[in-house]
């Protein structure tokens, strides 16, 4: 039997009101509607609201709505305002928000003297490069962490409501304080956005011929640079302190490497460069992989003709060989009539995958053991 969120009985009951019908809000709506939860949508933009409703993320509000849960999915600079308004308008509802910063709205609401007994800040670590209701997906949160920020005022029953929402959407609830959350996302989300954007900005002044040499490395490191500037100005401003700490440390590391490269034959220069690369190896090895494991996989690169059905055939034959595809990355070279499928497999499956695919006529461009 399928273990997907839509295959289970929903833990979330009653009416859920979602304020903000953009990517996150509409995606939450789609996921809950799949489980027949009554979802009410609201948005300051009538066109955004109508689009989300037309796509099936929820319905219009009615005067007799009595939501048990309100989800605020609005930009960070208005999160505190909307949370306060929803707490006042719905005195029986638990109110959560999904903003990507947690300390600033919490601090602002406390400064205003708002009763936060029914408020629980949260943040699903999920998203896409493109926003808006048209990009919303019901499976956006599956397997993703969902941070829940409780405090001494939080009632156990209210906490259970927010955690049930995360579980219904296929996410993994994780409790943190607002401070812990903001420090963590500064390192794992906010600074990577700045670094990707700054690196991608260098491409704007590159010679046209240089860009034709772009491979998967530069594409991987700049993928998130397509994000919306308006939203990121808000996010970075709201979490400026922790972001600056990481950026300052990163700037110091860059300066050390830069100085070493100015005189690569100077004593210790090559060690400085090697240590930087080695420390990067150590850091990336700590990132959780599939199902949250720290387990590392072997890489297998297969040449795939750029014709219909070839990728499906590759997957099918790997299945026949008993090889599970743990991860996949595709790369196309300009003008080439083939692509490179960079496949992650379990270490004990690599040899059998290489030998089995070669026997079936596939061209192997490389693997971890080369």
UniProtKB/TrEMBL annotation:
<protein>
    <submittedName>
        <fullName>Prephenate dehydrogenase</fullName>
    </submittedName>
</protein>
<comment type="pathway">
    <text>Amino-acid biosynthesis.</text>
</comment>
<dbReference type="InterPro" id="IPR046825">
    <property type="entry name" value="PDH_C"/>
</dbReference>
<dbReference type="InterPro" id="IPR008927">
    <property type="entry name" value="6-PGluconate_DH-like_C_sf"/>
</dbReference>
<dbReference type="Pfam" id="PF02153">
    <property type="entry name" value="PDH_N"/>
</dbReference>
<keyword id="KW-0560">Oxidoreductase</keyword>
<dbReference type="InterPro" id="IPR045865">
    <property type="entry name" value="ACT-like_dom_sf"/>
</dbReference>
<comment type="similarity">
    <text>Belongs to the prephenate/arogenate dehydrogenase family.</text>
</comment>
<dbReference type="InterPro" id="IPR036291">
    <property type="entry name" value="NAD(P)-bd_dom_sf"/>
</dbReference>
<keyword id="KW-0057">Aromatic amino acid biosynthesis</keyword>
<keyword id="KW-0028">Amino-acid biosynthesis</keyword>
<dbReference type="InterPro" id="IPR050812">
    <property type="entry name" value="Preph/Arog_dehydrog"/>
</dbReference>
<feature type="domain" description="Prephenate/arogenate dehydrogenase">
    <location>
        <begin position="14"/>
        <end position="291"/>
    </location>
</feature>
<dbReference type="InterPro" id="IPR003099">
    <property type="entry name" value="Prephen_DH"/>
</dbReference>
<dbReference type="Pfam" id="PF20463">
    <property type="entry name" value="PDH_C"/>
</dbReference>
<dbReference type="InterPro" id="IPR046826">
    <property type="entry name" value="PDH_N"/>
</dbReference>
């Amino acid at each position: 039997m399928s273990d997907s969120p839509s295959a289970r009985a929903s833990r979330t009951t009653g009416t859920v009101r979602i304020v903000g019908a953009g990517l996150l809000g509409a995606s939450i709506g789609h996921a809950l509607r799949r489980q027949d939860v009554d979802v009410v949508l609201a948005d300051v933009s009538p066109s955004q609201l109508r689009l989300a409703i037309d796509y099936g993320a929820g319905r219009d509000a009615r005067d007799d709505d009595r939501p048990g849960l309100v989800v605020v999915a609005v930009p960070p600079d208005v999160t505190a305002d909307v949370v306060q308004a929803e707490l006042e308008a719905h005195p029986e509802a638990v109110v959560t928000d999904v903003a990507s910063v947690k300390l600033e709205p919490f601090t602002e609401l406390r400064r205003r003297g708002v009763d936060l007994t029914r408020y629980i800040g949260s943040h699903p670590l999920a998203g896409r490069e493109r926003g808006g209701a048209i990009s919303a997906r019901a499976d956006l949160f599956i397997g993703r962490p969902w941070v829940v920020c409780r405090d001494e005022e939080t009632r156990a029953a209210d906490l259970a409501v927010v955690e049930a929402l995360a579980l219904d959407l296929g996410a993994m609830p994780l409790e943190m304080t607002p401070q812990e959350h903001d420090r963590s996302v500064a390192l794992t989300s906010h600074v990577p956005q700045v670094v990707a954007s700054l690196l991608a900005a260098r491409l704007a002044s590159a010679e046209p011929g240089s860009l034709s040499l772009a491979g998967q490395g530069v594409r991987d490191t700049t993928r998130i640079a397509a994000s919306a500037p308006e939203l990121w100005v808000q996010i970075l401003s709201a979490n400026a302190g922790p972001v600056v700490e990481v950026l300052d440390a990163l700037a110091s590391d860059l300066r050390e490497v830069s100085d070493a490269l100015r005189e690569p034959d100077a004593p210790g220069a090559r060690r400085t460069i090697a240590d930087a690369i080695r420390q990067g190896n150590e850091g990336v090895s700590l990132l959780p992989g599939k199902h949250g494991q720290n387990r590392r996989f072997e890489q297998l690169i297969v040449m795939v003709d750029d014709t219909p059905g070839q990728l499906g055939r590759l997957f099918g034959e790997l299945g026949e060989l008993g090889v599970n595809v743990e991860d996949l990355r595709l790369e196309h070279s300009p003008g080439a009539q083939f692509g490179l499928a960079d496949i992650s497999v379990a270490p004990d499956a690599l040899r059998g995958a290489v030998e089995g695919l070669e026997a079936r006529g596939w061209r192997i461009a490389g693997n971890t053991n080369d």
